[in-house]
Design goal:
Radius of gyration: 20 Å
Largest sheet: 8 strands, parallel, barrel
Distance between the termini: 20 Å
Strand content: 15-25%
Structural class: alpha/beta
Strand order of the largest sheet: 1-2-3-5-8-9-10-12
Helix content: 40-55%
Length: 364
């Protein structure tokens, strides 16, 4: 059975929308007692593994003022540290909270990294969601989605080397061109999209790639959203190849499926609970939001059961490939494996060769 599946995979790889690539996404939920230095060390090890084993990219998030993902205060700085240690893997953001930053500032940071990497930079953008993040730009919170939409084209123009005017001292309009000039003449853009159908259509109309997750829906529902994205892409007259749909999936692959189940339950529940509280706090401006106690735990239980069975790559190599195939059939082009969600780091390191075995038919 597994040999037949591998032969099928090899036959499909490289066909029209038939293949799937693999990357890593980091979020750095290390659990209690894990130092910041240990988190950076694991991220470095996984990045070097990705570079050796043919993974497409590593996605670096932007996080502020929370222990949850706290080592990613500036993704450009971390990329600059890792770029000289790698040869081929790409560095992507997931994503820059664009309403917090001046477009020219973002282009300066990442143009430097594009030069240092020999042209291995792509940028993903989001509007931001945590209220506390907007101490950097208090006036941008209410209109953050509109600002993100307005600023992405400015980033693209500056990246190309165009002169763009911005308000300067006293309201004076000042024309600028950003230096250093990046290696890549055109920037590949990803848009972070959660569950909103119109957001998928918007990305398609603009010609952006999509980075998404199974946040409140399953692969069958995602397939319908991808169809909306492809239709909008085609209707806008973009190239027939279409954009890239990247899907984040929590990942732990090992020869012992029972060990995987035992290892992920506690950390994954903590991860879901921590993420839920962060979103409630961000949306409502107070710790824990309005859903407490039993109600919150029911949400955690539901999310855990659903994700473990249908929304994550957990188990042996064969089980993992079944999930990958379902994602590919839904229209996913790339899977971003999230491995640092609280599982013991020793087990994460031990699992990497099995993950390499899983993905090798697709990228070998």
């Amino acid at each position: 059975m597994e040999a037949a599946l591998e032969q099928l995979i090899r036959g499909q790889r490289g066909g029209a929308r038939g293949g799937v690539s693999f990357s890593f996404l980091f979020f750095s939920e290390g659990g209690g007692g894990v130092s910041e230095a240990e988190k950076y060390a694991l991220m470095r090890e996984v990045t070097l593994f990705a570079d050796r084993e043919g993974f497409e990219a590593v996605y670096i998030p932007e996080r502020h003022f929370s222990e949850f993902g706290s080592i990613y205060a500036n993704s450009a700085v971390l990329a600059a540290y890792l770029i000289p240690q790698t040869e081929r893997v790409r560095f992507r953001t997931a994503g820059v909270s664009l309403p917090l930053h001046h477009p020219a500032e973002v282009v300066e940071w990442w143009a430097m990294n594009d030069v240092l990497s020999g042209g291995r930079v792509d940028l993903g953008f989001g509007s931001g969601w945590s209220r506390s993040d907007f101490v950097f730009a208090p006036g941008s919170y209410a209109g953050r989605r509109e600002l993100c939409s307005e600023r992405i084209p400015l980033v693209q123009r500056l990246w190309r080397g165009e002169v763009v005017s911005f308000p300067g001292p006293g309201g004076e309009s000042l024309p600028i061109r950003v230096y250093p000039r990046p290696v890549q003449g055109e920037l590949k853009v990803w848009l972070l999209v959660a569950s909103n159908d119109e957001a998928f259509r918007h990305a398609g109309r603009r010609g952006y790639n999509v980075f998404t997750m199974l946040y409140g829906f399953d692969l069958a529902a995602l397939a319908k959203k991808i169809e909306l994205y492809r239709a909008a892409w085609a209707a806008a007259g973009h190239d027939s190849g279409g954009g890239v749909v990247s899907l984040m999936l929590h990942t732990l692959v090992h020869e012992d499926s029972g060990r995987v189940a035992a290892a992920v339950e506690g950390p994954f529940r903590r991860y879901i609970r921590s993420s839920l509280r962060a979103h409630l706090q961000a949306g409502l401006g107070r710790e824990g939001g309005v859903i407490e106690g039993e109600g919150q735990e029911k949400m955690v239980e539901y999310a855990y059961q659903r994700y473990f069975r249908t929304g994550a790559i957990f188990g042996g190599v064969g089980e993992g490939r079944e999930v990958v195939e379902r994602a590919r059939e839904a229209g996913v082009d790339e899977i971003a494996c999230l491995v640092d969600f609280g599982v013991d780091y020793g087990l994460v390191r031990e699992s990497l060769p099995y993950l390499g075995e899983l993905v090798s038919p697709y990228i070998g």
